[in-house]
Structure formats: C-alpha cells, structure tokens
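Worked example 2:
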Amino acid sequence: MAALLLAMQQSLTLTKSKTDGMCARMDAISIKLQKRDGRLTEAEQQISTVDDSLLPVRTYAADGEAPEGYSCQE
C-alpha cells in the first residue's frame, strides 16, 4: 500500500523507441497521476516526439556501421 501511495505522488515518465530506418526515434510519454476521492485519476498526459536530427547521439543497428560520433545498438 505504501508503494502505491508513493507512486501516486510521483510523476511517471515512460520512454519508448521507434525504429525509423537505421535510426531510432524517441517518443517521450509523460504521465502524471493524482489521487481524487481515494482513486487514481490521470491528471495530465503529454506526448512529444523528439526529432532524431536534433539528438546528439543516434542509435544504429548493431550489424550496421555507425558513423563517427554515433553509437551501435545491440
């Protein structure tokens, strides 16, 4: 029960990756929960897509060759 109360008080951030060709694009999903009448309600949900051209490091497939300054994903 204490863990549930703690989770209700914190903002949760979920991040998932979508493969776009050889690059990975990140979609950040931020969900804030609040307690109302003893029940959890979704107070705010923000979904933003980060353009991979703005990221300092792109992720490439492990079997591909990454250019200098980029990392490989296993």
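The two ends are 38 Å apart (CA to CA). Residues 3 and 9 are 10 Å apart (CA to CA).
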